[in-house]
Write a structure and sequence with these properties.
Helix 2 runs parallel beside helix 4 (about 150-160). The two termini are about 20 Å apart. The strands form two sheets. This protein has a nine-stranded mixed beta sheet, with helices on both faces. The chain has a single domain, classed as Class II aldolase/adducin N-terminal domain (L-fuculose-1-phosphate Aldolase), CATH 3.40.225.10. The chain has about 200 residues and is an alpha+beta fold. Helices cover about 30% and strands about 30% of the residues. The chain has six helices and eleven strands.
Length: about 200
Amino acid sequence: MIDEGYIKFICNWQEEPLPKTGNVSDLLDARNLLFQKKLIGFDTVHNVGYGNISKRIKAEQFLISATQTGHIEELSIEGYSYVESFSIENNTVNCVGPAKASSESLTHAAVYLLDPKISGIVHVHHKKLWESLLHKMPTTKESVSYGTPAMAKEVKRLAEEENLLQHRIFSMAGHEDGVVSFGGTLDEAMKIMLQHFTAL
């Protein structure tokens, strides 16, 4: 988890107010609940934040927790960034808001590309949860680093080869403690993650 939180893509960021996105109280509440459960937070040993959350707003645009916000207990809307467009092939993310989008934005983008019905994504860090899912649920290759086009392509591979769309949760072998869930709603993504977490 040492390199968690560092952006590895080309981030074209415009610092300006977030566009109007409608009601996102579910996003704020879900993120703060994950913080309370220490599934999103801050690693004081390595001095880095971990975990992120997003909600599709329309088409291929989504609202995602901003980079370097893991340490904030109650994250307000000012702690989010709006991804307007992205290119996995070109390793770019175009975002607007008070801060840059999460370092995992390309991974979230890849999940949204799997199915237009996916509307919410949760990415957490928890060693015991990660270990319990590793190679038992869809798992990315150990050689693939987070936040890269290679990770985005791994997401597509998991959908094609490991029934990811049925499981709706995967572990990241090359991103220690990292687990991602998703669903037709953000609430569904949360339920999937928390079901696995509470079953530990």
